[in-house]
Predict the structure of DNA topoisomerase (ATP-hydrolyzing).
Amino acid sequence: MGLEQIQLRPGMYVGNTADGTGLDNMVAELVANAMAEAPPCDRIDVSLYDGDVVAVRDNGAGMPVETDPEWDVPLAELLVTQLGGAADFKVHPNRSEDLIGVGLPVVNALSEEFAVRIWRGSLEYAMRFYLGAFVHRLQCTGAAGNYKGLPRRGTEIAFIPSPRFFTSTTYDFARLEQRLRKFEFFQCGIAITLADKRGGQTREATFAA
């Protein structure tokens, strides 16, 4: 199933595209995807940057990069380009109770830019999209390196919501914080940090999911 249908009716997948709640649901989709890896994931960082850039980073195992035998493409590509592509991927049992959309492909389809970095098996991988279309496919970009003395692992997704689909693409920190705090009820042992780094200053909110 292609991403064009998402772009034709974005409200069906993320909710209201005019009042900001649809934007918040985009981030919630990425956070829920990261929570699906608990354990080993125990930390998720959500950062807001100038230029309407949002980045969600976790310290899980990293998206799977193995080739799917049926599609003959890396599983990570399927997860962000195919509706239902995550059907066989581990999903948090409570996530369907708190989300409107159907995962990563929705965020990809509604983003002006969508970039993925994966640290898995001591290697780093990357892929990039424009409005859901490949700019470059998944490729190994080198060694994963270390973080705080341990092999780096996890996934980072950075995106810019497209003004083609949203009345405003600027995030409201307080509203997004309220949206993400709903994950506290999941109680799966993950620390979530929301950091607003716009305008040369930083304010943060941290809570447990």
